[in-house]
Amino acid sequence: MAGNCHCINCKKATGSGYAPVLFVPKDSVEITGDVRYYQTTGKRGFCPNCGSSLFEDPAVENPGEFLSGMLGICAGSLDDLSQYKPEIDIFTSRSATWECMDPNLPKFSEMPSPD
Ligand SMILES: [Zn+2]
């Protein structure tokens, strides 16, 4: 699942309107090198050297829910940016008036249900 998250947490993490996040099964990811985590409603992983956002781990925020077992990779951190193809906008109820969204993407005011 790939989506632009407009939640307040992602705004704070990016200093922008939303975070483009590619969600993959957590056990499919091998993390090498140093990552520091900041605990909020979930966990945000970032590079301890340059501060770049790397991961969004929603497990704490959504135990047993839609994104359980998934790890969000911050799309801007990908070496090949074309790997990110956003499918949805989520938490649009938290959008700022100055945010621009792709009108062709489905919008969810909160986190969509797994159905
Ligand atoms: Zn978010």
Automatic annotation (TrEMBL):
Q: Which residues cross the membrane?
A: none
Q: Does the keyword Lyase apply?
A: yes
Pfam families from the UniProt entry: GFA
- Which InterPro entries does the record match to this protein? CENP-V/GFA, Mss4-like_sf
Residues annotated as domain CENP-V/GFA: 1-99
- PROSITE patterns per record: CENP_V_GFA (PS51891)
Tell me the keywords, alphabetical order: Lyase, Metal-binding, Zinc
**PANTHER family for the chain:** CENP-V_GFA DOMAIN-CONTAINING PROTEIN-RELATED, GFA DOMAIN-CONTAINING PROTEIN
Record-stated family: Belongs to the Gfa family.
Protein name, UniProt field = GFA family protein
State the organism named in the record. Microbulbifer halophilus
